Structure formats: structure tokens, C-alpha cells
Amino acid sequence: MVEDSPEYLQKRAFYDSLLTIYGRKPVLEALEDLSLPVHKLHLARSNRRDHLIARMEQLATERQVEIAHWDRKGLSRISKNARQDQGVALDLALPHYGTAEAFLQQLPEKPCELLALDGITNPQNLGMIIRSACAGGMDGIILPKKGCAQMDPLVIKASTGTAFKMRLLRCEKLAPILAKFREQGARICGLSSHARDTLAGLDGRQPTVFVLGNETRGVSDDVAGQCTQLLRIPMQNGVESLNVAVTAALIGFRRQT
Amino acid sequence: MVEDSPEYLQKRAFYDSLLTIYGRKPVLEALEDLSLPVHKLHLARSNRRDHLIARMEQLATERQVEIAHWDRKGLSRISKNARQDQGVALDLALPHYGTAEAFLQQLPEKPCELLALDGITNPQNLGMIIRSACAGGMDGIILPKKGCAQMDPLVIKASTGTAFKMRLLRCEKLAPILAKFREQGARICGLSSHARDTLAGLDGRQPTVFVLGNETRGVSDDVAGQCTQLLRIPMQNGVESLNVAVTAALIGFRRQT
């Protein structure tokens, strides 16, 4: 296939939309959720065939989902987490899941608001950010592979099901993709407790990416270099910082509460 | 002493203001924080006198804080948590810490806004609620002994230091104290995803208690019976609930973001 043929691009978009989850509980729950578009179930041949595995096979068969069997090494190449996959992985074909690059090429007409995560390493926080952003109506979350927690069972659990609803935009590193969003006319707002301007003072409706940094270290230098402005959330009682999922909620809900 | 003599009431107010924390790390950190009014250090005689214990004794001596030594049983009566106290407890005399009853008797002139917690059993969530409420400028948190997590090392850690700044109002059970707040003219607003009215629609400036229920079960029936109104926070994308600390933040920050 030629690299820019429509057929190739379509296939690539499909594979970019795959989110591979692992672990017996998350996989079983996803198979039971008929609203989730399941692509393929992966099982290790070394699995003891207990009732959980039997139930997964039964659900996959009922849903006409392909089942692939692998040796332990093959499965760990798919789950990318041999220590925690428990011999089970599942590909979800989520229409909302893709790359930041692809999103940039089809920027929506209406001014969108995205979060971008920089150094969010705690899976619990990542899950709660997804939950807050989803409830607050953010249009997507840019999640770099470098320096951030990735979609694993802990994140999915902490997101209370919203991980499968939220538009997640993957990229390798954050700074270069933010540069591209800038070129497309988006403003890049870094949240920082040292900023002069406040979140509440932000007006106008233009595409906006809000960058959330690590709770201890804040936004990293190379990412701060891509920000068009820095914003703070004024805090009472000398409190210095908010939980990052709380910050995500205050951004998402700021127009309605 | 007579039960209603000024001397008795003063003493009682002092003892009500004591927050006893335990565990080596929290106690050492509190002793190192010169902004915290420390009342008394309690040590088990069975403690091995390692460098941490020596450092605590040194700090207490420098700060002219009384040190009491106890057998294991005596110490666990003070910490109320023999399994986690690690042979160490510390009384803090926090001017902001007291009972909901005492607060009711001296209601501030300006319309105050309080949180009341109903069935918040997760220490991580309790700590994050305190942090959010403190940063959002809430005037206090009503924390019942029944059915809620209590101030322990996990809570203090999750509060990132705000547990010592926030006004915490203890009570035995929540419903009876809410009834008294009602009698004093406060409105009692239960947060519920099934409510018709929204948080954003709440207006007027009168004393208000916002009741946060358990994330799974919501506000309990006897507490709901004391609510003068129920409020919801509208959510996008079919999300059904928010993390309770996120809800606390949206309440506290609703006037400024």
C-alpha cells in the first residue's frame, strides 16, 4: 500500500484508534460493556483456564470478537506490561482515541478546548483528570508518551469508566506538538501558581490548550517555552497548589458554576 | 469546677481544640513546622531510641513542649490507633479546630459557607477535600465521628499541610447538628446528581452548609431529611458523578472561576 493512499490512511487511523488494555478485571468489564467497540481479545496460552478466562472467551464469541492466542512473550509485546497483564489483553477500537497529529489535521470548526498533560506520573491523578475533563466537557486530552502515566488498569479504574468516553490524543513529546497547535492559531495556556493573570480573566473564544504540569515541579521548561500565556487560580488561606484533577475540573467547569 | 463556669468553658474549649496526630513522619514534620502550636508530645517507653525519636525529643525541648512517656497501652489510649501510631503521638492546639456545637454558639456575623461530610470513608478523598476547601476559601468542614474517615496520617498527607489550616468542626452524628444549623437560619444544600436545581443557580448570601455524600451511595437518608434543598452539578458526556474533592472545589471556587 502506498503511504498516502486513502486505503493506507484509513487503516492507519483505525490502528491509531486502538487502545490496548490489560489485566483480567478491566478486560472482563470492557467485554461486558456492550457500548464499547471491542476489536480483538488476546490470551496467553499459559493461562489456567479458570472461570474468568472461560467467561471472556464466551463473551468474545457472543460478540463475534476475534480471539488470538500467544505465548507469554507474544502477549507481553501486545500488552507492553508483562508484569501486570495477567495473561490477558484487549484491543478497543475507540473512535475518540487517536493521535494529536491526526486531530490537528482535522481541527473542528468550533473553538475547542483541550488539556495537555506534562509530567503527570501518578495513575490515580491521570484517571481523575480524565473523569473531571470528561464531566466538564473538555474536547480532548493530549497525553504524551514521554513523562506521563499511560492508560493502564489503575488509570481506567480511577477514571470510573470515562477513559473510554474521553477523546485522548496521543503524542510522543509534548513541546513539539504544542508548537504545531500554536501554528494553527491555538493559544497555549500553562497553569502556574506564579502567573500574574488568572484563569477567570481569560476571555474570548479561540482554540485553547491548557497545560497541566507536575504537582511538585510544575510545567517543564521546554513546554513552558511553548506557552503563549501563563494563568493561575487564586487560592485562599495561603494554599500553594491544588490537586491536578481539581485544576482540570475548575478549567472545564469554569463557564457554568 | 462548675460545668458552666467561665473557667470550665475555657478549659473545655482548649481541649476541644486539640488535634492528636500520630505516626513518626507526621509527628516529626509537625514538630519541625514552627507555625503549628504544639501542646504535648507523647512517647511509648517501649520505643527504640533511634535518631527519629531523638530528633523529636530535641525539637520538643527546644520548643518547650511537654514530653509524656507512656506504656504501650497508655499511648494507644491517646493515639486511638495502636496499629499505626508507631509509639508516637502529638497534641496540636489548633485555634481552628473545635466542635460544631461551639461554632454554632458563636456564629460569625458574615454569612459563612461550610461543607458537611456524610460517609466520606476514603482518607485520600478526605485529605483532598480539606485541601480543595481550604484553597477555595470555605469557612469550615463539619466532620462527624460516625461514618467518616478521621484525621490520620494518610489524611494529613493527602491534605498537603492544609489539615492544620482549615477550620474542622467535629460532631458525633451529622443529622442532629444539621438540624441545629437549620434552626439558626442556615440553608442545608445536599449535593445530588438527581437534583433538579443546579449549584450555579444558587444565589443570595446566607449561611449555607453544603452536604457531600458518599461517592457510591450519595447522601444518606437521615441527612437528606435535614436538607432544605438539593443541588446538582450539570455534567457533560453522560458522566454520572465527580470525585468528591472535585465537587468540594467546584463549590468553593464557584464565585471566582
UniProtKB/TrEMBL annotation, chains A, B:
Question: What GO biological process terms does the UniProt entry carry, in alphabetical order?
Answer: methylation
- Print the organism lineage: Bacteria, Pseudomonadati, Pseudomonadota, Gammaproteobacteria, Cellvibrionales
Protein name stated in the entry: TrmH family RNA methyltransferase
Signal peptide span:
none
Q: What UniProt keywords are attached to this protein's entry?
A: Methyltransferase, Transferase
Q: Does the keyword Glycosyltransferase apply?
A: no
Q: CDD domains, from UniProt? A: SpoU-like_rRNA-MTase (cd18095)
Q: For the RNA 2-O ribose methyltransferase substrate binding domain, which residue ranges apply?
A: 20-98
One GO MF annotation is:
methyltransferase activity
Q: Which residues form a coiled coil?
A: none
